[in-house]
Amino acid sequence: MIDTGIKGVQLFRVTDSLRCAPAVYKPTVVAIVSGTKEAILHGKSYVYDSSKYMCCTMSMPVEAGTPTASPENPLLGVYISLDTHVMTELIIEMESATGPIRKPKGGPHPEGLVLSHWDDAFTEALYRLLQLGDNPMDTAVLGNGRLRELYYTILKGEAGESVKRAFGVCNEIARSIEYLSSNLDKSITIEDMAAHVGMSRAVFHRKFKEATTMSPIQFLKAMRLNNAAIKMASGMNVNEAAMEVGYVSSSQFSREFKRMYGVSPKQWSNSKQLPAEMIRKTAQFFHQLQRPSIS
Fold first, then answer.
1. Distance CA 180, CA 120 (A)
2. Residue 114, beta-bridge partner list
């Protein structure tokens, strides 16, 4: 990961083929310049490259990897954290200029993980942003403005509706996930999550599944297990990782972990299928992807 000097914008280079492993995506856009990346959400594969960028508008428990990367053909990309305040300001300004776009009542909630084709506006804005890296003064003076320009092209692109719902006024699902992510070590119920955003249990359940493809309970379990897997891959022992993500019973944690990944937590920590060096590199890479969005 290479800092560009613009807060929240980094370049990355991967030279190893990494099989898909548990990760937690934060609100971000990942644009691949060369190579291919894959993310799996609830069994659905999202493969993106230089023709499509990935936009994640809320924290998501995924499995992600770089299956085709190699020293000869490294994966090259740009990691762009989505600034909550700037996104919200832009959405308000856009609606003030054109008026809010009303969706039919009862329409589906847009998904929180989407792929969007690179259009000319996005390509030009990204290029103008990355050009600043050669000049510290240009970066300091123009960086925030050009990042804002890139955000604007994202809002106008194919991922725009998903971004608007996550960062605009009607962002109940994104707020409920933020609440959940901050309280993984506590006992959280669907009623707690629904009450946090002022929705009934039934409506919340339906909208949550539309946005994440999972029920709230499935999502909560995946978030806990993915976070635990990342902690164990980084060297934390099984019991400590289980407690840090809210499991009181180590036996329940082991059962659910094995059901999710096909191996026990201990086998995962000492897996022969994932050599120690690969685990270290995977954990290091996805640690970067878990950096919180700027606020």
1. 37
2. 55
